[in-house]
Amino acid sequence: MNFNIEEAVAILSRTPQTLTSLLSGLPEGWLDCNEGEGTWSADEVVGHLIDGEQTNWIPRLTFLLEEGESKPFPVFDRFAHLSAERRTTEQKLEEFAELRTRSIERLRAIIETDDLLERTGTHPAFGTVKARELVSAWVVHDLTHIAQIVRTMAKRYKTDVGPWVQYLGILNR
User: Any idea where the DinB-like domain is (predicted)?
Assistant: First the structure.
């Protein structure tokens, strides 16, 4: 087992700055490109991350610690951000950074001891899960979406790189 709460926080706390460094000030072409129908742009991913901060990670962790396995977590609507009020990517990045700071503060406050990470709850689709698994999934979720954003942006130039496409692995996934 590799999980360590401080290592998890090290990634979680860097995600907002990583995304701000990558996306802030870019032309809309970079922010709005996607990989086709049913996929998300960088701007939409940031919206999804905001929604997760508000309704997924800390709320579910709190629920798990309070309710245990007595009832399943509330369902998380992974697509709720698609119907949210339109804001600029800059506004979303700022909101995400503020929400993430509060989430990490809350995480540190509610996980007072490592034994709390072994407590279990009921996920509506997966069944019994541990608090540690939930926090681990949060970290990997961040990394997944960072990779998604980078891959989507790279694919914007897939036809423009000409024969170099064969050497650019990110374009061939």
Answer: 12-149
What CATH number is attached to the domain comprising 15?
A: 1.20.120.450
Separation between Cα atoms, residue 111 and residue 106, nearest integer Å: 8
Q: How many domains does the chain have?
A: 1
Alpha carbon of 46 to those of 118, 145, 147: distances in Å?
A: 30, 9, 13
| H or E stretch covering 130 | strand 127-130
Q: Which residues contact 129 (CB under 8 A, 6 or more apart)?
A: 64, 120, 121, 122, 123
- Cα gap 20→27, rounded to integer Å: 14
pLDDT at 85 over 80: no
Whether 149 has a pLDDT exceeding 90, the answer reads yes
